[in-house]
Amino acid sequence: MPKPPRRRPLASPHDALFQWTFSQREHAMGLLKAALPQPVVAAVRWSSLRIEKGSFVDRALRSRHSDLVLSARMGAGRIYFHTIVEHQRDVEALMVFRMGLYMMRLWERITRDQPALTELPPIMPVLIHHSHTGWTAATAFQDIIAASGPVRAALLPHIPCFELRVVDVSGGRAGDVVEEALTALGKVVLWCLSVSGDDARLEREIGRVAAALDEVLRAPSGLAALEALLRYLLTTHERLSVRKIGGILEKAVGPLAQEAIVTELDEIERRGRAQGRAQGRAQGRAQGRAQTLLEVLTARFGALPAEVSTRILAADEATLVTWTARVLTAPTPEDVLGDDGPRASPARRPTARKRARRT
């Protein structure tokens, strides 16, 4: 029986699921209503909520966290919500500092786009955190400033003052989240983030979101949501098979939702088999090209260095096509494999005297 194709992990599965879910307005609205202080919730005109373009996270840090920026009308202006979702399982001690940098970048863009502003719009910083310990670092910027006693009291008026709103989903927690405000999909997604990588908790605690999961799968968009959830669970629970994860979900939901799960699992396996066949055909073509290239190189240059043979046998089909096109003009086997194509023979390069005559 052929082995199933190996799963290709997403570059950042937490980000992919979070962005897919909360870039949809109804789910973003539910998350913000659940996470924000009630006076803010009451003041925002939620019908005006929109997703803002752009990211403010440093490119080098995007493997650790990513952001989603939203805004809505509040009073005569707008309020911005800068939401960070973490990809790591550690508590970053200076996360409140990084959030401050991102907020400044957002204000900078706002003032650049609206140069007539005389006041800055408020930005609410929201952190979605999941770790083994839960959030243990400072949430207030002033708490990470190294000063104490009378000196600290004197400095505080001159130090930025803001506080993170932390949505801590570690170990099933939800911090200050008002769960009733979340959509069914929002509840399931936050729970999936909280059990990420923990196979035992996935199976043991599925009952916590059984009703919400059943509602998600019975909705008109249920199959799309199920595909996103399964993609995330399969990537973050690599020791569990597709059917095992499907079985865990099936036990938690009603008959209609079970039918949706079975349908989606069949589709995943069908795509997996098709992908496996396509990969097998590509590997077969690559092996054939590699053998042909080795034979041609050996006929032209004689016995090949071991490193040349190793590189050819490990190359993909597109690379082998490029190398094969160089065989007739390259002066050495190494030139065939060179990244910049064959190097010109020194005898063919015009000398300085010849170049001088041409000018």
Briefly say what this structure is:
This protein is α/β, with parallel strands linked by helices and 359 residues long. It is built from 15 helices and five strands.
Q: What can you tell me about this protein's structure?
A:
By secondary structure, the protein is an alpha/beta fold. Among the domains are: 13-196, no CATH class; 284-345, no CATH class. 51% of the residues lie in helices and 11% in strands. It has 15 helices and five strands. It has helices spanning 13-22, 25-35, 38-43, 95-113, 149-155, 184-194, 199-204, 210-218, 222-236, 242-252, 255-301, 306-314, 317-326, 333-336, 352-358; strands spanning 44-52, 65-74, 77-86, 123-129, 165-168. A five-stranded mixed beta sheet has the order 1-2-3-4-5, with helices on both faces. α8 crosses α9 (222-236), α8 crosses α11 and α11 (255-301) runs parallel beside α13 (317-326). The model is unreliable at 1-11 and 340-359 (pLDDT under 50).
Keywords for this structure?
359 residues; alpha/beta; five-stranded mixed sheet; 15 helices; disordered N terminus; disordered C terminus
Our Rg estimate from Cα atoms comes to 28 Å
Low-confidence stretches: 1-11, 340-359
Give, in order, the helices and strands.
HHHEEEHEHEHHHHHHHHHH
Helix count equals 15
Major β-sheet annotation = 5 strands, mixed
Shape: globular
Share of residues in helices:
40-55%
Category from helices, strands and their pairing: alpha/beta
Number of E-type strands:
5
Instruction: Provide the spatial order of strands within the biggest beta sheet.
Output: 1-2-3-4-5
- Alpha carbon gap, first and last residue: 71 Å
Q: Into which percentage range does the β-strand content fall?
A: 5-15%
Mean pLDDT: 83
